[in-house]
Amino acid sequence: MGSLQIHTTNDPAYMENGLTIHVTDGGPCWIIDPGLPPQAEQIVSYAREHSLAPAAILLTHAHADHIAGIDEVREQLGMMPVYLAKEEWAALTDPMENLSGMMQSNGFVTNVTDPLDLRPGDTLELDGTSWSVRDTSGHSPGGRTLYCEKLGIAIVGDALFAGSIGRVDFHHSSGSQLMRNIHEQLMTLPDETRVLSGHGPETTIGHERTTNPFILHGL
């Protein structure tokens, strides 16, 4: 197995990290949290440049800045399945649930009508790599982390950032739930685990364990 290739895109408004991950050129890939323009265009270009076969779109959660590129990606690269925790399926078709209704007058929805659940404890396979699904809800009602023990990588969405944590002032957020899940689902991982967040730079579990003020002192 080769090393995991990680291609990151951002949007200028929220700097959300949309990821395309794969092991080999010409092999399958996952597209994770495709966000606002120009992310979808950049993801499509990268996938074609590396002759990738998109196997799925995986969503750590369904806030607007993490789902805005879904339809364009599927239109350009094929109608791949979309995985999202069942607790957030409504956000795919409800602007107030995905928060776009708070950002603009009309908001937006996706064309996804058949999402697949991401259940804590599930295992997903990508080209010889195995990823477990962990519950990191609290920022949103169905936040999920994808963790590959062999590679030492956790894709955490907006649960944990370098030096911070996800916002918990939305109508469906819970600060106590988020902190509990961070401690039980993330801080139990090895210190060297790479943390890929939904915004901002990469960090490690060990660095956040010893420096993150929210981990050290709580909300």
Helix content: 10-25%
- The helix/strand series, from N terminus to C terminus, equals EEEHEHHEHEEEEEEHEEHH
Task: Please give the radius of gyration in angstroms.
Answer: 16 Å
- Any idea what the CATH superfamily is called? Ribonuclease Z/Hydroxyacylglutathione hydrolase-like
Main sheet: which strands, in order across?
6-7-8-9-12-13
| Helix/strand/pairing category | alpha+beta
Mean pLDDT: 96
What spatial form do the alpha-carbon principal axes imply?
A: globular
- Per DSSP E runs of 2 or more residues, the count of β-strands stands at 13
Major sheet: size, sense and barrel closure? 6 strands, mixed
Instruction: Specify the CATH class.
Output: Alpha Beta
Tally the helices.
Answer: 7
Query: What is the strand content?
Result: 15-25%
CATH architecture level-2 label:
4-Layer Sandwich
Poorly predicted runs of 5 or more residues: none
CATH topology: Metallo-beta-lactamase, Chain A
N→C terminal distance: 41 Å
Tell me the number of structural domains: 1
Précis, in short:
This protein is an alpha+beta fold. It has helices at residues 39-49, 64-67, 70-77, 100-103, 175-186, 205-211, 213-217; strands at residues 5-9, 18-22, 28-32, 53-58, 82-83, 123-126, 129-135, 144-148, 153-157, 160-161, 164-165, 194-197, 203-204.
